[in-house]
Amino acid sequence: ADWVCSGSDQRGRHNLAVFYASCTLDCLFCQNWHFRAASPSHEAGLSAAALANAATDQTHCVCFFGGDPASQMPHALEAARRLAERGT
User: Fold this and answer.
1) What's the rounded Cα separation, in Å, for the pair 22 and 37?
2) Would you state the pLDDT for residue 1?
3) What per-residue confidence (pLDDT) applies to 36?
4) I need a labelling partner for 6 at 20 to 30 A (CA). Which of 31, 60, 63, 87 fits?
5) pLDDT at 81 over 90
6) Is residue 46 classed as helix, strand or coil in its secondary structure?
7) Tens digits of per-residue pLDDT, 26-63?
């Protein structure tokens, strides 16, 4: 974890970084323009349950990344709900 994250001083623990490959925006100078072609309903990926199960007792936090959240919102919320139920 970088210094801006509270996980940076959690020795022996790790963060789970989730990078979504989907975006509904069309920014002129986007460095990840190829994600606009990805579709969360057509691409292979992890289910919300599988993502939540990837977190272990050593996971300090889960960070979600990837463009405009609109196309990933249902998945991110479901994964976060499952993680919260487990206390992660």
Assistant:
1) 7
2) 57
3) 66
4) 31
5) yes
6) coil
7) 788 887 777 666 665 666 678 999 999 999 888 888 88
If we measure between CA atoms, which residue out of 60, 58, 64, 72 comes closest to residue 25? 72
Q: What is the pTM (predicted TM-score) of this model?
A: 0.72
At position 83, the amino acid (one-letter code) is: L
For residue 37, the model assigns a pLDDT of 66
As a whole number of angstroms, the distance between CA 48 and CA 55 comes to 12
Which token pair is 70? 């609109």
Q: Which tokens sit at 53?
A: 């199960």
Distance CA 42, CA 22 (A): 11
Cα(12)–Cα(69) distance, integer angstroms: 30
Is 59:15 a contact under the CB 8 Å cutoff? yes
Q: Does residue 88 contact residue 51 with C-beta atoms inside 8 Å?
A: no
At position 25, the amino acid (one-letter code) is L
